[in-house]
């Protein structure tokens, strides 16, 4: 029986825009995350894709309780994580961990690798008794494919891909159940991305991890994710399994996104649908009324400005989509590898 | 750019499954010591001649301050060392720097004067940096009303002109003890300097902390469940220390000069304390007729301040690229 | 250790004699001399581009692809960078032997460049129209009013909405994609014959990237320019390129037309790259990785620079640098001792 390990309901995170020196007036809100609901099933990888301004990074921070939401709930195994006591929250952190995007800034440059990976044990002393810490750190280094002899080196002595591995080792230290990966391979060279992606996959199999995988690169997400949620301007536009999203997308934004992703196959110039959006993403401080995507959507009608479409299953489609005119369209011709 | 030897070692470590052709796995490189960022800065510093020159000068001055007996047999602080008959005598073989208006050996006084000046310089900087730094950390880390309050207080002190503030503070305490001990006088001067200059360090530390708070690795530490103490002392402080170190080093010289200025005005150090500022003040009236009385303490003062400025410069350059 | 370099003939192209090529880089060598050592960034690179075609220079960080472009434009910081060998010929003339005055004339009107990060390439305190117009005022002596008008024309050309009004806007008032269009507009001001685009879309969202790439392709067609596209993205290359030069450690390891390269790569590095990128249109792929790390340019491995990471490496790969040679006498070329084997597999 598949269990939801994380349930997000109507999560909202607004940042007030303030003006004034002595008395700060709030003149607007940046609606970074504006009503997101999703579930993370135990053992799966849920991909969250979107372009800049869609709110995916804010979503990650709120899920990690690095920021408090403006409203909404996040349940971890039934517990509301924002209502926990300090002690309980600290214990919760052992179960949900974070891998960050930039390997060059996510490690404290003045700490050795051993200290960085060992820090979780110092914060949560009950997890590892003092004598065993060094050994655990060495094991973690091996698990992520680094040499344990490098335990006393500093981050700047490693390459980007290796630093990312260190970050992953740090996230694994407390044996979490969920890891939120915030664009973990975006900053890496192409030939290194594959190494880290394979590592993440292997770790998931070995330790039974659940991933919330945030990325802007749809190709990367397809490779790793079981289900995918497409975000646009703070809300989810479409959510479904890998097949459903990549082969039978129904939301115009998803279709445009898929069309825009370049495929490393010159022959696809003939087979891929070409959908080009006009203009740029509107500002999250001022999202369009009704459906946020309507300003760039070729299907927009009056109803789109008047009524915000809900994320529900639409006619003859097998997965939820937030569009009044959702219609399946094959954008990318998929083959078996 | 990764260490090249590391690269080959890791090439083998990263893919243990690959066994064909390829480069034979190399062992872990020997003789490679881990180089932290402070270590890198030190290696850079070592290479700079300016660093060694200034360090030597400062070293000499510190030795002079600590053990003045090594440099002169005359102790000008004890009564009876003055010989009025030699008042304002120019430099000669017995007295290399000549005599001042009261008949004191200028050379001996200059040597003994080093202690007070250096003490004031070092201690003022230390306490100002400690107090200011602490306040800056609190203001930067907690933000909100704490930051508002501390910053406004600091602004008030920053707004006070140094000399004016010093005059006000020192003259209100000066009346209380005309026969105060040397320790008390020095403490008073140090305190005055500290009180008037801590906001500088607070500001620097605060802005370092405010931007340091946003760093990814700090977020990562929070995500691990680190509390404020750990974040401040383990993550923020080591990375925010560099600007303070630079400014502090540069300011040692500035505070020594400040003390001289205060003493010159008559509100800083005074008898029985001997300092270069005191000497310069005493030599005011004799400047035209006996320039040697002011010349030597001034030269020492200038040289000392210059050494600290050079040291501060060298330290700043060594630390700078690492700050990025 | 002596490296044996056998003859280094570049791949012969079809009947075009070398002197009439639009832009040609010939056996270029560039090094960077730093306090820690000398980094050999470019080690004998030759490629060319003609009018109306798109050459993609593909490589990862450290491959030298950007430095080659900078060498063509003559904008390498020197010190620490030095061109130590080779020629760069524009219409047959070796630019490296020209005086700075002459090179400056070619910049912009002969060869222009678009960079990756438009935000740092544009001066934030001047309006966009002023900056674009600067080219017209300085090089063609136009008046301010005229130059503004021309700037507006260019913004229109790159499809910025309300171009006439936007001429008076500042760079920060544009979004990322719009700024990149402004950069492209600036580069086209003097009607260059060759446009070099150095990772023009890497910092942009994918939907915007698609717009910009479309724009570049269209402009190239309309103006019959030669386009050199420098990138690491195998997907972008597949969409727009005619020919591809793959670079690794400062050398070209494979050169081919785009269809052939993807259908059958003839160099282990290219093969490794293609096998390691996740693809939008494949389900259930295994990603084969290239083991190891890109080389340190101060200590490039002897022989073939790729040999420590190559699954096919043999003894000869460690001693002899493989020259870039045509495969089976055709138009493709590969710098691998086993290129022919790779070419003949199914």
Strand content of chain A: 15-25%
The H/E string of chain A reads EEEHEEHEHHHEHEHEEHHHHEEE
What is the CATH H-level superfamily of chain B?
A: MetI-like
- What is the CATH homology-level superfamily of chain A? P-loop containing nucleotide triphosphate hydrolases
Shape category of chain A: globular
Task: Describe the model.
- The complex is a heterotrimer of chains A (337), B (324) and C (346).
- By secondary structure, chain A is of the alpha/beta class.
- Chain A has eleven helices and 13 strands.
- Chain A has a single domain (4-95, 176-321), classed as 3-Layer(aba) Sandwich (Rossmann fold).
- In chain A, the strands form three sheets. Chain A has a six-stranded mixed β-sheet with strand order 6-7-8-3-9-10, with helices on both faces.
- In chain A, a hairpin with a 2-residue loop joins β9 (227-232) and β10.
- The model of chain A has no long low-confidence stretch (mean pLDDT 89).
- Chain B is mostly helical.
- Chain B has a single domain (48-323), classed as MetI-like (MetI-like fold, Orthogonal Bundle).
- Chain B is elongated.
- Chain C starts with a strand and ends with a helix.
- Chain C has an eight-stranded mixed β-sheet with strand order 7-8-9-4-10-11-15-14, sandwiched between helices.
- By secondary structure, chain C is of the alpha/beta class.
- In chain C, α4 crosses α5 (144-157) and α7 runs parallel beside α8.
- Chain C contains 13 helices and 15 strands.
- Residues 1-13 of chain C have low confidence and may be disordered.
- β13 of chain A pairs parallel with β12 (282-283) of chain C, so a sheet runs across the interface.
Can you describe this structure in just a few lines?
The complex is a heterotrimer of chains A (337), B (324) and C (346). Chain A is an alpha/beta fold.
What are the salient characteristics of this protein?
heterotrimer, A: 337 residues, alpha/beta, Rossmann fold, C: 346 residues, 8-stranded mixed β-sheet, 4-stranded antiparallel β-sheet, globular, disordered N terminus
What order do the helices and strands come in, and which of them pair?
The complex is a heterotrimer of chains A (337), B (324) and C (346).
Chain A: E1 4-19, E2 25-41, E3 45-49, H1 56-63, E4 71-76, E5 79-80, H2 86-92, E6 96-99, H3 113-123, H4 133-143, H5 160-172, E7 178-182, H6 190-207, E8 210-215, H7 218-224, E9 227-232, E10 235-241, H8 242-247, H9 252-260, H10 268-271, H11 302-306, E11 312-313, E12 320-321, E13 335-336
Parallel strand pairs in A: 3-8, 3-9, 6-7, 7-8
Antiparallel strand pairs in A: 1-2, 1-4, 4-5, 9-10, 11-12
Helix pairs in contact in A: 3-4, 3-5, 4-5, 5-6
Chain B: H1 4-14, H2 37-46, H3 49-66, H4 106-142, H5 144-159, H6 162-174, H7 182-213, H8 216-224, H9 228-265, H10 276-282, H11 292-323
Chain C: E1 4-5, E2 23-34, E3 37-49, E4 54-58, H1 65-73, E5 81-90, E6 93-94, H2 100-109, E7 111-114, H3 118-121, H4 128-140, H5 144-157, H6 163-166, H7 176-188, E8 194-198, H8 206-223, E9 226-231, H9 234-240, E10 243-248, E11 251-257, H10 258-263, H11 268-276, E12 282-283, H12 315-319, E13 320-321, E14 325-326, E15 333-334, H13 339-344
